[in-house]
Each structure stands twice: as C-alpha cells, then as structure tokens.
C-alpha cells in the first residue's frame, strides 16, 4: 500500500513511491480561482436578485428578463444519455431551484446517439447528450457536436489538469475550442476475488492452470481487444490495425477463451462473482466490484495488468438543437454536473470516476478504492482512451464491420 | 360470410406478424455500417448467411442441439400422454391442470431456477458434496450444452405433453381393444395403431418445440457458456452497438426457411402407417 493514501497503486501497476499526491495538489492549486472560489459561486453569493436589480436599473425590461434567465431561471433540457447520467438524486432539487424543466430519455447503446442526434435534418430534438470520448474526433468531424462556450461552464477550470490538455483532451478540445466536457470515467480493469486469489500482476496469469475455468471474459469487444493488443505488442490508441495485426491479437485472445469459464455480459458478471462461479474477469469495468458487493460479495477488487489496458471517459456534448434558447440551461446543468458535490454523487451512484480533484475528498471508501486517485495521469497513460475502428476503409486498417466479423468469429471459435 | 369469422385473426396476424416480418425483410436488404444502416437494396446478406463460416457454425450448433431437444420432448411425452389418455381417466384433469400450472411461471424465472440448480453452489453440487460423492463442484453442469438441453426439456416438455395428450384423446379406445383382440402386443399396438394416429400431433409438437428452442436466446445466454447459438447471435446483432442488424434480419429468415423445410419433410410422416 502507498504511504500517501489507503489506495494501493500497486494493483494498477503504478509506482507506490512516487508522490502523485503532490502532483495533484499542484494541479488543484493552479485550478483555484484567485478569490478562493469560482466565478459561478461568487455570483450565487452575491445573489441573483441583486444582479437582476442592478441590470434592471441599468437597462430595459428585456435586460431584466435575460438577466433572470441567464442567472438561473427557465429553459428545458432534452436529455438523451445513459440512465443514471442525469444524476436525479442530486439534480432534482437543483433543477427545481433553477426552474429548469428536464426531459430524459435513455439509450441502450452508443449507436442510438448518432441516430438520434441526426434526426430532424441536423437539428436534434435533444440538446444534451454524451459520447464515448474515443468517438470525439468522429463526432467533431461529422458536426454531431458543437463548440461549447466554457465561460458558461466555469467549473471546467476545476477539472483535473490532465483533462484540460493533450493527450486526453484531444477527444473534446479542438484548438482552443471545447466541443465536449468530460463527465465521468471508468477503467476497463480486470477483477479478482481477493478472498481466494492474489492480485494478478499480468493478464497472462489468467492463462495459468490455477485460473483454468475460474475467470470469465466479458463480452466487450473493445476492452477485450485492447487487452489482447497490449499482450500481442501491437496496441494502437487510434485503433488502427492491419488484418495481420488483428489476427495476431485474436490468436492471443483465443488462448484466454480456451482457459476461461465462459464469455459473459456485464449484467452477468456481478452475479457470477456473487455465486462463486468465477473468481476473476479479464478487461471489464471496475464498477463491477461495487455491483458484486451489492450482491453480497465484498471481496472483488479491480486490477490492471502490467502490460496495460484501456479506459473510457464519457463526455457531455450539445447537439445542434432546434431550440437554441435552451442552451443556457444546458450549459448550467453541465456546469453543475462537474461540480465536486455532483461529481462525488455521480461516482457513487454510477460506480465511476470523478473528473475534478476536489470531489475525491467527498467519496466514500469503496468508491474511492475503484481507481488510483493519487496517480490518475499514470493510470490513463497505462490505460488510455482509445478510438473505435474506422467506419470507412482507410489504408490498410480494418474497419468497424471487419472488426465485428472477427470478433464474432472469435466468439464462435 | 363464413370468411368474416377469420377477420379478427387475419387482422391480428397482419399487425402482429406480416407487418413486422415485412419490416424485418426490408431491413435484411440493407447494408450495415457502424453508425447504422445504408439502404442498398441488396440480397447479399442471404448468401452471406449461408457462406460465412461464423453464421454457418452458429446455425449448425443450434440445430444440433435443438433437434435432439425436440425429439426428446416428444419421445418423453408419449408415455405420459398415453397414460393420461387411456389409464388415468379419474384424475386426468387434475394432472393436466398441474402441467398447465407449471407453464405459468415466467420463462426467465425458470431459466434462472436452473442457474441455481446447476450452478457450482447449486442444489445438485451441494447435495453431492454433502453425500461425499464429490470433493469439488461438477463445473460442467453449467455453461454447457447439457445445461441448455436440460433446461429446454424442463421448459418445453409440458407443452409437448399437452399437445400429444390432445392428439391421443382422439384415438378411439376401441381401436386399441381391437388390436389386442387380434393378438397385437403393447409395442405392436403402439407402433401400428397409436403412433400413426397421433403422428400429426407429434409432428406439430416437434416443430413447435424446435422453433422455440432454436430461436431461444435467453437459455443459451444464461447457461450455454461460450457456445454460439443462433438465437443469441441474432439478438446480439440487434442489441449491441457494433451489431450487424441487416445480417441478423437475413439470418432470421434463413432460420425460418429451415423450419419450413423441416416441417414439410416431417409432413410426409403423417402418412406413416407404423413399423
């Protein structure tokens, strides 16, 4: 265990002696507003009514109306994202206080987003959605997202420093423009039952006789392939693989499949841990540890093989909407969702990671233990966000369709 | 005028079957991209369904398990149906009622029940461990073809019994007496009288259970482990982000064509005169 915290970076293959906490303290200090709190907080303390009164004295009635609107009232958010991302437990009272109407629809797959935001000939009925960070460049190129006025999202300055610059920010920042705001992250970490097995240091340990029929592979093509790509020595963060490289990866994964109990869905894995039918899982999702704990199995822990892995970040974006007058409400909600309190709440309810260092202190022990918060930059360097395969043929790289076929063939083998 | 009696059924079939099937067929003529489908009006998905080794293997695996399951269901239900039709007049209705009640439980609940029965810490393994018959759980009981087959038998056997019993009740008891009077033993009476007269019901039960089993994706998903069944494969293609929906739609029709061929082939058995 690291001396700096009760989180053990060793499970994530990170150096326990490096003072990552000092790095983060520095980042937090840089993010601090000179006043000691953000501009949004300053305005709130000053009071909306005082601001509105000043504007009313200075200008016509319409200025009062817009001041009232900009400062807190009105607007409708048409939300389309994963269930839970609307963080109702903490958002409902906030929405009521700010007189913002919130209509939520939830999607089942990432594919639904692209289809939905393209409805209405480029003007989507939804004005707030999220994308998997690895699709950020595609979304930008296809104009499915739009630039965000970060002066209306002041909490963006409180995000981790490494989320505001390359390499990670390339998925949502283009030049100096923000086209997305990162909301939550998760790691495609492996899992093991600490009551019966020692923490694996390498993914290859799953190929040993000790692990025969005692682990599952999760039916997540991207996470599993990324793990295999690290092992095959061909990992590419832009998901550019030749057919020969892809075959090499699937040959590696075949060995895992032959030694595994089964290939299971995310919904099945917590139950398999709880019933004792598995003691481990390859690259999956750290949140499963909490889901298994909810089913009574409190000894499941995430780990990251030393070869590396991948992770995901889900990013808010504002589709070009047919109701642009609601955009201020949308930006207000985004700003609220990345405040420390909302981030801590989201991390607990979604079993995810927080995007702002100030939220870490608000996390409970179990949620904090999911990720190495004292070493997040190193974690993302070891388990980066990757793109999806290209949708159209580009040079020698396999396309999404070709990847799907290879994945299905591997599953059937 | 008599055809007006069919109107409600035709309306239901149109809305519930023809229109969705038409929509699915329309989808099978598209091509798949990562962000959805492109309407290309192509039949390419159909030969691909038969030529692609992944799809072919899934189809073969599915048939290799669902055909025996249907055969076993029909075979095991014959003695039960015979007993109910000719030997259990007094409590036939009670037994039929109990069989019907067993089908009231949700399909998913019954599949999950077998997760509990066959699991490593399930009823069977725990019982055997307590008896000292085994030191470690029998891990092959679950996530295997056996688990799927046992579950299908449990779930579909009541349906086969009900169909065959209805068919068996149409066999006149005096025909059996006549056969015995003419010197036929039990087996000969069964093969030359009962079997031919109930063949239509047996074929109907067989095809129905074959359809249920081959298109089931829940049981293979929960209990089948790594085995790639066609129903599961098709559902994955529709549910997952990276799914190939047009190909899955085409596979659905290929599977339906297989059922039609099997049904037509088995239809010849209705002229079966016995062994």
Notable traits:
heterodimer; A: 413 residues; alpha/beta; five-stranded mixed beta sheet; globular; disordered N terminus; B: 275 residues; 71% helix; 2% strand
Question: Can you describe what's shown?
Answer:
The complex is a heterodimer of chains A (about 425) and B (about 280). With about 425 residues, chain A is α/β, with parallel strands linked by helices. Chain A is built from 16 helices and twelve strands. Helix content of chain A is about 35%, strand content about 15%. Chain A has a five-stranded mixed beta sheet with strand order 2-1-3-12-6. In chain A, strands 9-8-10-7-11 form a five-stranded mixed beta sheet, with helices on both faces. Chain A has a two-stranded antiparallel ribbon with strand order 4-5. The relative contact order of chain A is 0.18. In chain A, strand 1 (about 75-80), helix 5 (about 90-95) and strand 2 form a beta-alpha-beta unit. Chain B starts with 6 loop residues before the first helix and ends in an 8-residue tail after the last helix. In chain B, strands 1-2 form a two-stranded antiparallel sheet. The radius of gyration of chain B is 22 Å and the shape is globular. In chain B, helix 3 (about 55-85) packs across helix 9 (about 185-215). Chain B is mainly alpha-helical. The model of chain B has no long low-confidence stretch (mean pLDDT about 85). The interface of A and B includes residues 275, 388, 391 and 411 of A.
